[in-house]
Sequence to fold (483 residues):
Amino acid sequence: MTLEEKVVAIVAKTAEKKKTVTLDTDLVHDLGTDSLAVLMIIQALEDEFDIAIPDDAFKTVKTVREIVAQLRAHFPHLEPTP
Amino acid sequence: MTLAAFYDRLRLDARLAQEAGFNPYYRHLQSGLNDPVRLDGREFLNLAANDYLGLAADPRVGRAIAAAVARYGASLCGTPIATGCVDLLRALEQRLAAFVGLEDGVVLPSCYQANNGLFSAVAGKEDVILIDHYAHSSLIEGAKAVGCKIRPFLHNDVEHLASLLGKVRGHRQAFVVTESVFSTEGSIAPLAAMVEVCERFGAVPVVDDSHGIGVLGANGRGVLEHFGLTDFPGIYTASLGKALANAGGLIAGRRSLIEHLRYFCPHLIYSTALPPGVAAGVEAVLDILAAEFPARRRLLWEHRDTLRRGLTAAGFTVMAGEAPINSVLAGSAVQTLRLARAFYEAGLLTTPFVYPSVPLSEGRVRLIAGAGLTLARVQAAVAALPAIARAWQAAPSSGVA
Ligand SMILES: Cc1ncc(COP(=O)(O)O)c(C=O)c1O
Fold:
């Protein structure tokens, strides 16, 4: 599973309603993500990757793709370098 | 930094109300909750109040309050830890605890205050609080005030809760927080299953039964009676301002918990005690319930079903809740206020909920037909529903099927 696929799966799992999630899914507009839901996503990522995500890392994140980008920026070790 | 900039920042954005042509908030009633209620010089059927059993304007409750005021005056002008607590209030705390099936209780001036103060008094930074995603603001803010890790779980999802309890580690104590009845949709939390999961992991369940006390259970004793939880191991809170038709916030549970709160909950200790008249009002409601609950409950549910059938027939989408609440899905904030306006113009007072009280684009309008209303009045409201749906539909992009 790629990092992208893992993040998509985590966002889908923490959404209240069964919805199709893609990299372009907008958290607020498509999923209605509120502040507690953001917390749920962050904590699910922390559980999955065994990392501690800094409090403000996701402040400006709008789409699933941007979550992946932030994860890559903060935690380069999540993907083995080829 | 200027004063002008500060006040500028506080200025409200009036666009939503303008676009909907209606601001439903902070309307001032010109009467009590007798049917009809008066507002803006007109008469309304009140489907907005949480007066589930129709006792807020009951003359027997009013007389009990008047008698207590005659004896004790308006207020003791003191905090409970000082001399603000009258014998009547202490008796009420014990009676309420026994009513819901717990050892002891304490009453604060409101349940918002109770929920806000509870967590800081019993939890610390080394603990973890798992909380239902859709829990009431008072619970969320109270939990946040502790400064410990907060882990939201998916709404009413025991499996998700259990998986999170299995994952959290390194904490001293876990708390699991939920409401009994989620009042914006009318769903009931699977509390029995949640308590079981809590016991498996040694977590303390915390339930806010504000919309369950006086409503759920064969005798109106609330969610614990509803689920047959005779030995609830956790913390129970409830507002006395809904079915119990007065005001105040109960925290109940084991005696040691209540004793602890008496000395370590600043929201209790440093706030003027519930006035004696209000305590007497709640006592009177409990007396009435002992005799009249079955009949009032029957009416409450009949009204809910009558309204639900009417709403569905008129093309509205009613949320599938198990509580005596009808929530109509309306969509965006503007659509929600427009629907509340259509009800208002037809003489029906309702409660609109928009984000952040409910998820974005899941705005809804809540209707509660309390036992104080007659069937004829509820039927008259039902007769008006098709025209209300049409008026709402006439506004652009409504969600009526
Ligand atoms: C679930 C819930 N908890 C707490 C409160 C606050 O109770 P009170 O009005 O007694 O402050 C309310 C609503 O008012 C509520 O709906």
Notes: The mean pLDDT of chain B is 96.
